[in-house]
Every structure is written in structure tokens, then in C-alpha cells.
Amino acid sequence: MEIKEIQNLIKFVARSGASEVRLETKDFKITIKTGSERGDMAEIQHMPVAAPIESVTQVVTPSQPAPAKVETPPAGGAEKSKYISIKSPIIGTFYRKSSPESPPFVKVGDRVAVGDTVCIIEAMKLFNEVESEVSGTIVEILVDDSSPVEFDQPLYLVDPS
């Protein structure tokens, strides 16, 4: 199962309100639990079936989103509704550029097209490029560089016009 498929499964479970979802194939088992006895925590277990090893459990706790960084605020709150947000596909650390010496992938005012890399999110020592799913102009950057981000947290606001 690809990471994108696992992410989509987590999104589905979060939106459906289900308390537990189990998926088994000949290669692995995934159990996603929400609303467990430990409060409002989500528990994800991934166990390969072929190899007899201990189960791996990752507990993800909801937290407050990082403080917003406003480089050039859009005019008026009513106008924000016309913008589309680019959201984090995973939990990790947000980076606006590929290395400290490199320029940022995008800045406020830059045009982006579908498939353009807009940032990198580091998760478990893996650097994942985040690509834009919309075309338009970046109007606001919502997260500070090197900040932790949550799954589905808005990172950028894009004006599609």
C-alpha cells in the first residue's frame, strides 16, 4: 500500500466519524482507531503479516496549529472565502526551501500551476515534496518555516483567478 493510499484512508476515517477501521491484506494489517479511552487521540497500527515482529504503534494527538505567518494579508475576511488552501498531506516539519542556501519554492505573489512544488515536509527523516493541486497566485503563507504541521493543516492560500 502506497503512502498516498494510507493518507486517503486516514482522511476518510477522519471524515466518516467511524471509531475504528481495520484493513487487512496478505502483506499487512492497518488499524485506525479514533476517540479511544485515552481521550481524543487517534491510534494507527501497521503490522506486516509476513514477518512476525512486534506491532508498530504511532499515537497522533491533535494539537493547535502553528501560529499563522502573514506576509501580505488579503484585503478583508469576506474575500478569504474565494481562496483555495493548499493543505499538508502528512504530519511533519514544514520547510519553504530545499536547503538553507536555496530560495523558497514560492513567495507571496508567485503564480503556481498544478504539480508545482510549493514546499517540503519532513516526516520521520523523509523529505516529501508537496505539490500544488490548484493553479493560481499565492496570496498568503500560513505557516512559519521549520514549523511542525498537522495532517490537513492549511499551508498556503491561493487565488485561483
Walkthrough of the structure:
The strands form three sheets. The chain has a four-stranded antiparallel β-sheet, covered by helices on one side. Strands 5-12-10-7 form a four-stranded antiparallel β-sheet, with no helix packed on it. It is globular. It is built from one helix and twelve strands; from the N terminus they run αββββββββββββ. The chain folds into two domains: 3-60, no CATH class; 78-159, OB fold (Dihydrolipoamide Acetyltransferase, E2P) (Beta Barrel). Mean pLDDT is 76; it is low at 36-43, 50-56 and 66-74. With 161 residues, the chain is mainly beta.
Please describe the topology of this protein.
Elements: H1 3-16, E1 20-24, E2 28-34, E3 42-48, E4 56-60, E5 84-87, E6 92-95, E7 111-112, E8 117-123, E9 126-131, E10 136-141, E11 147-149, E12 154-159
Antiparallel strand pairs: 1-2, 2-3, 3-4, 5-12, 6-8, 6-11, 7-10, 8-9, 10-12
